[in-house]
Amino acid sequence: MTGPKSPPNADPIARLEDLTVQFTAGGPPVRAVNGVSLSLAQSEILCIIGESGSGKSVTLRALMRLLPERRTKLTGKIEIDGQNVLSLTPRALRNLRGGVVSMVFQEPMTALDPVYTVGAQIAETVRRHKGGTAQAARARALELLELVGVPSAKRRLDAYPHELSGGLRQRAMIALALSCGPRLLLADEPTTALDATVQIQVLLLLRRLRDEFGMAIIFVTHDLGVAAQIADRIAVMYAGRIVEEGPVAEVLGNPLHPYTRGLLASDVDSVPAGEPIAAIAGAPPDLRALPPGCSFAPRCHLAVDACVEAVPGIWRRDEHHMARCIRAEARAELPHEEGVYDA
Amino acid sequence: MSSILAQPPSDFEGPLLPLLLVRDLKKHFLLRGSGKLGARVHAVDGVSFSIAKGETLGIVGESGCGKSTLARLLMHLMPCDEGDFTFDGEAVNGAQGIGVASLRRQMQMVFQDSSASLNPRLPVQDSIAFGPRMQGKGRREALTVAREALRQVNLDPDLVGGRFPHELSGGQKQRVNIARALAIGPRMVILDEAVSALDKSVQAQVLNLLVRLRAELGLAFLFISHDLSVVRYISHRVLVMYLGQVVEVGPASALFAAPLHPYTRALLASRPSMDPARRIESLPVTGEPPNPVDLPPGCRFAPRCRFAEAVCTAKMPMLVTRPPDEGLRHEAACFIHDPESGHSLAGTGLSWETLT
Q1: Which of A97, A274, B126, B166 has the fewest CB atoms found within 10 Å of its own CB?
Q2: Which residue, among A269, A271, A341, would best test binding to B if mutated, counting the most B CBs under 10 Å from its CB?
């Protein structure tokens, strides 16, 4: 990539302050994100972990204002590269998208345009943001496909998305996202639809891109193993809130929140074949009728009365590692406890 | 509790004979517009295996390796081109033996997409009762069976039975699908990526359920998944497919501890570990499975294999048995394990450490 490596900079590339997202489409509003605050340093990789409906993808889309404006109520503050995203004019927003921040989606087949070749789509983006001739843009597209490791890139430039395999399509998608040298890449489950041997190829590619170009990445996934491979920091989301956040080794090795502990305990890899898995009982709450207190309390075997009365505040073990659990402090020094069997 | 569901199995062949015996199954799809002798997708290309009574066989492989086609062939959801299979000692759909209807009474299937496999306009208990009705049970009796099946999968029939699929969560829907399979009283259930679409915490609940049902009802499972961790957890034996062929089959513990085939090793090495201090730094295998239309000659994994030699592209390796340990056979289709093959590593046994 030709873009200069961003200089060492103390300012975060992205900052969220008390972000809430509500969807209104008749009936009670769906409270998808409920007060998320985050800060991402330059060239840092943050993984947002959560199950379906935890608000992780919505948070990501809110960062680029990709949510349908009419049916979405956004409050709080979103700052990317010092710009207040929520008050940008449409024109400034278009320059931000692709230029400073870009996104890789889970399903490249639906994110790429089926009627244009991969090369044409990348070249179009390049010309929109950087200008220049069609030939120069095409040369840049070729350079990008080679960068992301597409074999025989020259031939693939003229391929339509349906002519590529899943892994190649996702690489083309990443090439497209990188085309204008963004300083922040948002990745929404980019490897979930890929096979295991291809998934690790894409993860290594993203890690290399960060190391070479100093690009920051927010990577959304439900897979703790994937997060362990790529994250510097992990934020665990549950029912629209970040319930735990900290350095990857801390969160996975020394989790504070019962939900994180439950997720780790229910990982089949750590259970002998056929033995009961310590599954978290129950199901996530309905986002239209969230309980007043901790959203995880109804499934939590440590819950006490105070848990259901008010949303727990943040408890910090140290400067970097926090959890939203009133029992975190008392439990912090204990080893993993067993969850509740459900079968 | 299991009185209604667990019908006494016929089992006249005794416990030692395999429940399902598959021989040289083949399914090739003709590509549209390529003429009668045109290009073919070799979806399933000569697959043989067996499943013992009460055994769980896991099938792993990447997309396009033919694992779902295999499941559909077994259920007779599509006809096979070649090969035959025997269920509990009886040929299926041949001149003699049992017919498809009778096979499906004993073998049921659960699909990946839990919503698409339920009728959106039927309360789930009616969906479940449909099978028993087809078996000739009366309306009321079928409903009793359906509600009992719901109880089996930890769902309250009074609460859930009357609901429609869209009113249930993904995990609940998949439980309903399992209940529907059980309502027929099968002896074997094919689970095709049945837990892949579920969230991890819900997946753990459903896996616990499957293990319990297997023990209570003596069910055999054919468990198809691309998720190696889940397959290791639930399977007694594991079969690895690559481009329509079996490349390795063996006891789960042996296959995961000491995989024989380079492809199995690559698959295992691609699993992200949960330890951020031990990240994967180099690629276990490059490239992607080739197009199942233009198959490479010889071993189909050879173009991606770091151990490939001339012999690998010259002829197709057959499954060879490693010295049996603990009674269960461990086989792999790789020249490295065939002392006569002429591969330079043949017979050396190639330990797991060579790769890692």
Answers
A1: B166
A2: A269
pLDDT for the residue A339 = 39
Nearest to A176 by CA among A96, A95, A119: A119
Of B229, B277, B285, the CB nearest to A268: B229
Return the CATH architecture of domain A14-100+182-338. 3-Layer(aba) Sandwich (3.40)
pLDDT at residue B323 in the model: 66
Instruction: Give yes or no: residues B166 and B56 share one domain.
Output: yes
Mean pLDDT for B48-56 is: 94
C-alpha closest to that of B185 among B213, B212, B154: B213
Q: Measure in Å the smallest separation between the Cα of B230 and chain A Cα atoms.
A: 6
Asked if residue B4 belongs to a domain, the reply is no
Record the tokens describing residue A130, joined without a space.
Answer: 């950087």
A244/B329: higher pLDDT: A244
Q: Classify the complex by whether its ipTM is higher than 0.95, answering yes or no.
A: no
Task: Give one word for B79, left, alpha or beta, with left for phi > 0 and alpha for psi -120 to 50.
Answer: beta
Q: How confident is the model at residue A3 (pLDDT cuts 50, 70, 90)?
A: very low
Together in a domain, B236 and B291 = no
Does B45 score more than 80 pLDDT? yes
Same domain assignment for residues B178 and B225:
yes
Decide if B283 and A201 are in contact by the 8 Å CB cutoff. yes
- B100–chain A nearest CA distance, Å: 32
Distance from CA of B232 to the nearest CA of A (A): 7
Place of tokens 């590339």: A13
- For residues B209 and B142, membership in a common domain is answered with yes
Whether B345 is covered by a domain: the verdict is yes
Claim to verify: residue B158 and residue B92 sit in the same structural domain:
yes
- DSSP letter string over B145-203? HHHHHHHHTT--HHHHTT--GGGS-HHHHHHHHHHHHHHT--SEEEEESTTTTS-HHHH
Whether chain A has a CB inside 8 Å of the CB on B241: the answer is: no
Contacts of A279 in chain B (CB under 8 A): 201-202, 204-205, 207-208
Min distance A249 CA to chain B CA atoms (Å): 6
Mutate to test the interface with A, among B160, B274, B305, B328 (most CBs of A within 10 A): B274
Q: Is residue B32 part of a domain?
A: yes
The torsion region of residue A72 among left (phi > 0), alpha (psi -120 to 50) and beta comes to beta
Closest-CA residue of B relative to A50 is B199
B179 domain-assigned: yes
Interface membership of B171 toward A (CB under 8 Å): yes
Closest-approach residue (CA) in chain A for B292? A165
- The answer to whether the Cα torsion of B127, B132, B135, B141 is positive or negative is negative
Give residue B297's domain range: 261-272+279-355
**Positive or negative CA dihedral for B116, B122, B124, B130?**
negative
Number of folded domains that form chain B: 2
B269's tokens: 């090495």
Q: Is B185 in the same domain as B65?
A: yes
Same domain, B87 and B201: yes
* In chain A, where the domains are located: 14-100+182-338, 110-181
Query: B277 contacts in A (CB within 8 Å)?
Result: 249
How confident is the model over A69-84, as a mean pLDDT? Answer: 93
pLDDT at A130: 87
